[in-house]
Write a structure and sequence with these properties.
Blueprint lengths: L1 H43 L3 H29 L1 H20 L4 H29 L3 H32 L4 H4 L1 H15 L13 H24 L4 H21 L10 H4 L1 H31 L4 H6 L2 H19 L4 H20 L7 H25 L9 H36 L8 H33 L27
Helix pairs in contact: 1-2, 1-4, 1-5, 1-7, 2-3, 2-4, 2-8, 2-16, 3-4, 3-7, 4-16, 5-13, 5-15, 8-9, 8-16, 11-15, 11-16, 11-17, 13-15, 14-15, 14-17, 16-17
Length: 497
């Protein structure tokens, strides 16, 4: 019996490895493509407008279909959806690498988004269902959180290396073997122990949720390229909000909703969704601005710029696996999340205080503080995102945390980039405009980045406040480990009453 248990335990940790590889692929895709895109544009001769759509197509498909992807996993099986999504992502990536024009690349990116929307909630659901004991659950979510938040920095490094030393196409091709490894490993190790949602798919909910999320994500994309007051931006926001409002009304009335409102109303899950969205606004915007800083102000190559993110990537992984995970099975989630977010806010303040002549040591310290704080905070946030949820709803609950990240990322990129650009322009306008010398232009850029980092700090502080007010899950109770087949999904921290 012990041998059988040991084999099952070993298989679960191997399953986590392959699930994390799949998550890394999804996170890598966006970061790698951002670095490779200028080279792809030059090679395929497409316009700046088409370049924007290559980025937007992925975000729209991914963000718009996440809730549907989560519910499909609940209905037909998370492992099955996970494997199909990995295979589809590999095919879409190969199409992108072979693209001969902008249309083919755009189609590949949209397909990647569709399969990512199936993959992300399935991956998180499988971890929730596989690791049910507090200590193991903390370790598993620590690894998953580390991969999720450090993958962006790794992607920037990989994108720089592939683009500079090989070809932009390898930014797409590199995802194919990763997907194949994930499939081969997951077939024999991943198990779907959860119940399935037996009702029919809520088609009106699918249409309203997908189109509403597309409206919001596109609105933030339009804000970045057209401005916040542009009719296209305002119209997208209005349509998105109206459709999502209608979606919530429909969900309260249909017998088998796409998103049961009980998933949103439990305070710990609500805190996870909201705090992660606020924090990701800061993280995605910060990645973009730091990349500009390294290349435009410091004059570093894409490879050097990517490597400069290493202090943050390493400390994010350390924060999630060694700080967050070790504390999460001993104490309640709230102090970990609040402290982690506040530490991250302190790191953002350090970034706001940088200037054009700051040394790499100063930059690295700021990155490290941000990284360890956000890594520690995200681990319990990921864990309580499926806190106490019914096994039939675990997929859609997982989709909600992914939706929080996607919408938060869209807001962050558009909002912080707009603030940085407008603040820099205002600073430069009072100092001879574009005729100003180079050092003044660099000062203008730093002024803009600083303004954006202060705003990012406010969002992370808001994440800390949400966590302090809403999270009330107790410290996990350590029970004797049951045999794997007897483990209950609800062996997670319970809310205090």
């Amino acid at each position: 019996m012990s041998t059988r248990h040991d084999e099952s335990d070993s298989r679960r940790w191997k399953a986590l490895l392959f699930i994390s590889i799949a998550q890394l692929m999804v996170v890598l895709d966006g970061a790698v493509m951002n670095i490779a895109l200028p080279s792809a544009q030059q090679a395929l001769h497409f316009t700046d407008g088409s370049r924007q759509w290559v980025v937007t197509a992925y975000g729209l498909a991914f963000g718009g279909l996440l809730l549907v992807g989560g519910r499909v996993g609940d209905m037909v099986g998370r492992k099955r959806v996970f494997l199909i999504a990995l295979a589809g992502f590999a095919v879409a990536s190969a199409i992108g690498g072979l693209a001969v024009n902008a249309g083919m690349l755009l189609t590949a990116r949209a397909l990647q988004g569709v399969f990512a929307a199936l993959l992300a909630p399935a991956a998180l659901s499988l971890i929730s269902l596989t690791f049910t004991q507090p200590r193991e659950r903390a370790k598993a979510f620590g690894v998953f959180a580390a991969v999720s938040i450090a993958g962006g920095a790794v992607g920037l490094i990989a994108g720089g290396l592939l683009t500079q030393y090989l070809n932009w196409r390898f930014a797409m091709f590199i995802l194919v073997p990763i997907a194949i490894i994930g499939i081969l490993g997951a077939v024999s190790t991943v198990q779907d122990n959860g119940e399935r949602h037996r009702s029919r798919l809520d088609v009106p909910g699918v249409l309203l949720a997908s189109l509403g999320l597309v409206g919001l994500v596109y609105g933030f994309s339009a804000a970045e390229s057209h401005g916040w007051s542009a009719p296209l931006t305002i119209g997208s926001f209005v349509v998105g909000v109206l459709l999502l409002t209608a979606f919530l009304v429909v969900q309260s009335r249909v017998p088998a909703p796409l998103l049961p409102l009980r998933v949103l109303t439990e305070r710990n899950r609500a805190a996870a969704y909201l705090s992660v969205a606020f924090a990701v606004v800061s993280m995605f915007g910060m990645f973009l601005l730091l990349s500009y800083y390294f290349q435009q102000v410091k004059g570093w190559s894409p490879v050097m710029a990517g490597l400069a993110f290493m202090p943050m990537a390493v400390l994010q992984a350390f924060g999630a696996t060694q700080v967050g995970a070790r504390l999460a099975h001993r104490i309640a989630p709230r102090p970990i999340m609040v402290t982690g977010y506040l530490v991250s806010a302190a790191g953002l303040v350090l970034l706001a205080l940088l200037d054009a002549d700051s040394s790499f040591l100063e930059i690295a310290v700021a990155e490290a503080v941000v990284g360890i704080g956000i890594g520690a905070a995200f681990m319990p946030a990921m864990s309580i995102s499926s806190h106490g949820v019914a096994p039939t709803d675990v997929g859609v609950a997982s989709a909600m945390i992914s939706s929080s990240q996607q919408v938060g990322g869209s807001i962050g990129v558009a909002l912080l980039n707009t603030v940085a650009t407008s603040s820099a322009a205002s600073y430069l306008a009072t100092r001879n405009g574009t005729a100003a010398p180079v050092h003044v232009r660099h000062q203008a850029l730093m002024h803009g980045y600083s303004a954006a980092y202060w705003l990012a700090t406010a969002f992370v502080v808001a994440a800390a406040l949400v966590s302090a007010i809403l999270v009330n899950a107790r410290a996990p109770q350590h029970l004797p480990s049951p045999a794997p087949e007897d483990a209950a999904v609800d062996a997670v921290p319970v809310p205090a009453h």
